[in-house]
């Protein structure tokens, strides 16, 4: 078995891993980069109007022969670990005959993203992979393992060919609402691992202020009980653990959790996975309609949901009247200044910023300060911290540990006795 990391040996995002034997080739993850060659945030507008050969020449698409739709197919399957664009975003370019294996949750979230977000990922053949059941693709047997991550229904993969066994961690953590999955892996790890390909996102990012979702929930309760104006909640609508934390905090602080149609839709389509995911018609939940969201949903087979969400609709006048009792999900986009203009009186407004602080722009911070809007960062990472990475590596005890999804691969040298730092496109025989 040969391992080739086409992208990800020394960067976070844009992951693309190839495993091959003499007869079989598979790809694990195929994501959009998070940064460009200058380590500045990747501008997806550079993709517009460009052909696959042009994108490959620019080094944006990985140079993987037989992967793309304008080529003769030679890739047997693709496996996607979870529904974050830096792991699946380039599926739009793949050959339509290549089966793309992913979890049910990832499939549904990609569907939701295609409805509401400007970047569409379509044209591929999704195949749902069941957890803990082997999938046979040529010389490979692949078993998916559910992991704790900010991405919903995220997977790691145990991949075997002959007597060789590789474990691909995907993105994971040990401090989310599914931390029991991490403990289960530590206590009962897969055995005889020849190669562990493990993420290291948190290296170089400093210490976390909040250890877990429970800490976040407690801090949010305290803040919501002392608010004097509306509080906005800046978070990804696909970070389901964080939505649960926000909802639980609202219940304890007697606060109305105002979600948008996009968020209501995501929670609705994932409701079958868990009875604990808040829904649009639950206590203390209301739905704010924005025209762009409604128009997008109206064009789909799910348009009847608009009428259901309408039963819990909240208008701007009610928000004004109850502003001291409201936590409203929003983000730093065109809707935020519209809401501020509609509400007036920005003094003593607050933002709970529950995303990676690297996304927080200086200009946005300055504008909020000028308006008297305070920004309170309440966030915990979607990725494993150093001590958990070390524990994970010790439990699996691979013959070789290969870093991926990190800007600091040298930090892995303190995690395991045999670390192999690869270069992008380097062939490593297992």
Brief digest:
Strands 6-5-4-3-2-1-19 form a seven-stranded mixed sheet. Strands 7-8-9-10-11-18 form a six-stranded mixed sheet, covered by helices on one side. The protein folds into two domains: 2-205 and 382-429, 4-Layer Sandwich (Metallo-beta-lactamase, Chain A); 213-377, Rossmann fold (3-Layer(aba) Sandwich), CATH 3.40.50.10710. It is globular, with a radius of gyration of 22 Å.
- What's the number of structural domains? 2
Please provide the count of β strands: 19
Main pleated-sheet profile? 7 strands, mixed
Q: Catalogue the unreliable spans.
A: none
Determine the CATH topology of the largest domain.
Metallo-beta-lactamase, Chain A
Order of strands across the biggest sheet?
Answer: 6-5-4-3-2-1-19
How many alpha or pi helices? 13
* CATH level 1 name of the largest domain: Alpha Beta
What fraction of the residues are assigned to beta strands by DSSP?
15-25%
Our Rg estimate from Cα atoms comes to: 22 Å
Describe the structure.
There is one protein chain. The chain has 430 residues and is α/β, with parallel strands linked by helices. The protein folds into 2 domains: 2-205 and 382-429, Ribonuclease Z/Hydroxyacylglutathione hydrolase-like (Metallo-beta-lactamase, Chain A); 213-377, Metallo-hydrolase/oxidoreductase (Rossmann fold, 3-Layer(aba) Sandwich). Helices cover 27% and strands 21% of the residues. It contains 13 helices and 19 strands. It has helices at 52-57, 85-88, 104-116, 179-187, 213-225, 240-252, 261-269, 291-298, 305-310, 316-321, 335-343, 362-370, 386-396, and strands at 2-7, 16-20, 25-30, 77-79, 99-102, 125-128, 134-137, 140-146, 155-161, 164-168, 195-199, 231-234, 256-260, 285-288, 326-330, 350-353, 374-377, 400-404, 427-429. The strands form 3 sheets. A 7-stranded mixed sheet has the order 6-5-4-3-2-1-19. Strand 4 (77-79), helix 2 and strand 5 form a beta-alpha-beta unit. Helix 3 (104-116) packs antiparallel against helix 7 and helix 5 (213-225) runs parallel beside helix 6. The protein is globular, with a radius of gyration of 22 Å. The mean pLDDT is 95.
């Amino acid at each position: 078995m040969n391992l080739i990391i086409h992208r990800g040996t020394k960067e976070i995002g844009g992951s693309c891993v190839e495993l091959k034997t003499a007869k079989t080739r598979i790809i694990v993850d195929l994501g959009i980069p998070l940064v460009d060659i200058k380590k500045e945030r990747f501008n997806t507008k550079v993709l517009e109007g460009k052909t696959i050969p042009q994108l490959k020449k620019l080094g944006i698409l990985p140079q993987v022969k037989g992967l793309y739709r304008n080529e003769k197919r030679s890739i047997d399957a693709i496996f996607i670990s979870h529904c974050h664009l830096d792991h699946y975003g380039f599926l739009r370019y793949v050959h339509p005959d290549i089966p793309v294996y992913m979890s049910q949750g990832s499939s549904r979230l990609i569907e939701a993203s295609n409805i509401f977000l400007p970047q569409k990922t379509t044209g591929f053949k999704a195949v749902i992979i069941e957890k803990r059941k082997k999938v046979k693709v040529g010389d490979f047997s692949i078993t998916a393992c559910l992991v704790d991550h900010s991405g919903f229904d995220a997977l790691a993969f145990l991949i075997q060919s002959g007597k060789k066994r590789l474990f691909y961690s995907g993105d994971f953590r040990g401090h989310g609402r599914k931390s029991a999955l991490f403990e289960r892996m530590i206590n009962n790890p897969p055995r005889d691992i020849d190669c562990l390909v493990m993420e290291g996102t948190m290296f170089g990012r400093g210490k976390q202020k909040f250890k877990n979702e429970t800490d976040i929930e407690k801090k949010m309760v305290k803040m919501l009980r002392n608010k004097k104006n509306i509080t906005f909640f800046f978070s990804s609508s696909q970070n389901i653990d964080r939505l649960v934390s926000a909802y639980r905090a609202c219940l304890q602080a007697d606060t109305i959790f105002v979600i948008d149609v996009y968020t209501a839709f995501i929670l609705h389509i994932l409701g079958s996975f868990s009875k604990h995911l808040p829904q649009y018609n639950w206590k203390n939940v209301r739905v704010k309609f924005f025209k762009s969201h409604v128009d997008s949903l109206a064009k789909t087979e799910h348009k009847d949901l608009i009428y259901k969400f309408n039963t819990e609709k909240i208008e701007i006048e009610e928000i004004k009247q109850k502003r001291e009792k409201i936590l409203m999900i929003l983000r730093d986009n065109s809707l935020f200044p519209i809401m501020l203009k509609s509400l007036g009186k920005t003094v003593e407004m607050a933002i709970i910023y529950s995303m990676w602080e690297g996304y927080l722009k200086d200009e946005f911070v300055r504008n909020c300060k000028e308006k008297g809007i305070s920004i309170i960062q309440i966030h915990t990472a979607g990725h494993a911290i150093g001590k958990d990475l070390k524990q994970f590596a010790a439990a699996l005890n691979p013959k070789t540990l290969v870093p991926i999804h990190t800007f600091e691969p040298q930090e892995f040298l303190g995690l395991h006795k045999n670390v192999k730092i690869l270069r992008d496109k380097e062939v490593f025989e297992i």
